[in-house]
Each structure stands twice: as structure tokens, then as C-alpha cells.
């Protein structure tokens, strides 16, 4: 059994930055998940999280998507939100995750899972001992191209185009809500709605601010963030 490291940020010379990746055992569950990946390992440098796709839409005939998530303990987690058009299943592989769903606090340990139905307000974060990482598998029903949104948000983070928290800046978010499209044609507003302010207020605000954002040069789609070459340049990939 050997300890391996991957997911480090790469500097301008392609050298991994020490302390920016995660460790895993060569014959453990994370190694198995990495071996099953259908795309690159991507990361949020601000939140210290990693994601890789396991099953895409084409492989499931559009029924679902599956991806792995590695989170450090004490992470901030995503902004409180809901998904208007799909259900999301969380399966904890290791560690402890604290979820808030529809106002209820829920703790999930390894081997436990929770289905969050569309329209349910929720967020999650990893809890436990400092320096540890939690691993979960997330699935969306049906497939909507949600990983496209994750890759785009993380790509913006690598290029310094987000808040210090890793969340998109206000005008960037408004432009994406109105104009972002996944590879399956799903628009940003049908993928994720932040709470507060909620769907109605977001629709009104984005209608006003998105045109301003576009005038200032903000774009809705970034095809380069969906290419493996971008991530091979920015994130140290696991050995093949």
C-alpha cells in the first residue's frame, strides 16, 4: 500500500504546488474512484475541493450523471440553493457530511445517502478532524450536464475570476443565469437557484444585471474549461 497525492495546483512551469492536493492510498476506495473517472480531476483552489465525473449522460442514456467529490473538513460548501429541474443523490464514501435540506440539519456518515428532490433548498459541508478529507458520490436525475457548471465555476476560480470564497462575482453569476448552457442545452437558471434571494427575485435581478454584465465583458460560457487540456495544465492529474 502506497500513499499517493494528486490534485495539486500546477505553477506556471507545470510543477505541483506543495500542500494543495489530497492524499489517497494506492489500493483504497479513492484510487478505485479515480480509476473509474471519465474526465479530468478538476478543483476549486479557493475551497480546496476536487471533482471528477464517473458516469456521463451518454453512458446512462440521459438517465443520470455521477461524479465524485473530495472535500476538506471545515470547508465552506456551496451556497444555499435549490435545483429547479433535477433531483440530487448524495452517497457518503468516507468522512462525515453535514447537510441542511429544507431547513432540517442532517448528518451523513460513510455508507449513508440522501436524495434531495428538485426544489428542495439545501447545502452541505464536510465536518470532522482538521486535515482530513471526506469523499462523496453525487448523482443527478435526470442528466442535465451539471458537471459543465462545476467545471466552469472551478475554471473561473483558477483564473482568479471569482470571489475569495470561490463563488462567482455578482455580474458573472447574473450573466451565467441568463445565458449559460450545458452540453445538453440546459440553461443556468434551470440548474441552480441561490437562496436567498430565490427564483422570482433572481429572475428580476438577472434580467436587469445580465445585460450590464455582458456590456462589461462578462461571458456566460467558457468552452476551454470543459477541455481536459485546461485541467492538465492547472491541476496535477493522477497516474494513468
Task: Give an overview in words.
This protein is of the alpha+beta class and 240 residues long. It has one domain (39-234): Sandwich (Jelly Rolls), CATH 2.60.120. Helix content is 22%, strand content 28%. The protein contains 5 helices and 13 strands. The strands form 4 sheets. A 6-stranded antiparallel β-sheet has the order 3-4-5-12-7-10, sandwiched between helices. Strands 9-8-11 form a 3-stranded antiparallel β-sheet, with no helix packed on it. Strands 1-2 form a two-stranded antiparallel sheet. Strand 8 and strand 9 (104-108) form a beta hairpin. Helix 3 crosses helix 4 (199-215). The longest helix is centred in the C-terminal third of the chain and has 17 residues, at 199-215.
Coarse morphology: globular
What is the level-2 CATH architecture name? Sandwich
Count the beta strands.
13
How many separate domains make up the residues?
1
Low-pLDDT segments: none
Largest sheet, strands/sense/barrel:
6 strands, antiparallel
What is the third-level CATH name, the topology? Jelly Rolls
Q: Structural class of the helices, strands and pairings? A: alpha+beta
Q: Note the run of SSEs as H and E.
A: EEHEEEEEEEEEEHHEHH
How much of the sequence lies in strands comes to 25-35%
For this structure, what is the CATH class? Answer: Mainly Beta
Number of helices: 5
Rounded mean pLDDT is 94
Strand order of the largest sheet: 3-4-5-12-7-10
- Calculate the terminal CA-CA distance, rounded to whole Å: 17 Å
What would you report as the Rg, rounded to the nearest angstrom?
17 Å
Name of the CATH superfamily: Jelly Rolls
- State the helicity in percent bands: 10-25%
Name the assembly state.
Answer: single chain
Amino acid at each position: 500500500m502506497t500513499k499517493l497525492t494528486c490534485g495539486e495546483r500546477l505553477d506556471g512551469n507545470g510543477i505541483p504546488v506543495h500542500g494543495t492536493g489530497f492524499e489517497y492510498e494506492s489500493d483504497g476506495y479513492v484510487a478505485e474512484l479515480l480509476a473509474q473517472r471519465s474526465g479530468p480531476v478538476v478543483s476549486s483552489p479557493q475551497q480546496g475541493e476536487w471533482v471528477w465525473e464517473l458516469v456521463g449522460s451518454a453512458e446512462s442514456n440521459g438517465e443520470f450523471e455521477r461524479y465524485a467529490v473530495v472535500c476538506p473538513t471545515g470547508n465552506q460548501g456551496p451556497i444555499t440553493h435549490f435545483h429547479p429541474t433535477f433531483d440530487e443523490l448524495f452517497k457518503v464514501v468516507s468522512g462525515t457530511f453535514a447537510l441542511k435540506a429544507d431547513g432540517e440539519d442532517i448528518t451523513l456518515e460513510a455508507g449513508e445517502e440522501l436524495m434531495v428532490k428538485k426544489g428542495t433548498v439545501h447545502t452541505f459541508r464536510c465536518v470532522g478532524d482538521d486535515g482530513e478529507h471526506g469523499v462523496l458520490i453525487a448523482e443527478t436525475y435526470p442528466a442535465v450536464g451539471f458537471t459543465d457548471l462545476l467545471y466552469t465555476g472551478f475554471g473561473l476560480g483558477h483564473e482568479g475570476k471569482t470571489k475569495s470564497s470561490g463563488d462567482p462575482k455578482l455580474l458573472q453569476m447574473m450573466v451565467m443565469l441568463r445565458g449559460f448552457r450545458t452540453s445538453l442545452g440546459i440553461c443556468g437558471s434551470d440548474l441552480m437557484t441561490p437562496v436567498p434571494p430565490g427564483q422570482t427575485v433572481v429572475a428580476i435581478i438577472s434580467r436587469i444585471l445580465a445585460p450590464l454584465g455582458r456590456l462589461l465583458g462578462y461571458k456566460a460560457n467558457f468552452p476551454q474549461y470543459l477541455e481536459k487540456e485546461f485541467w492538465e495544465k492547472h491541476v496535477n492529474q493522477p497516474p494513468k
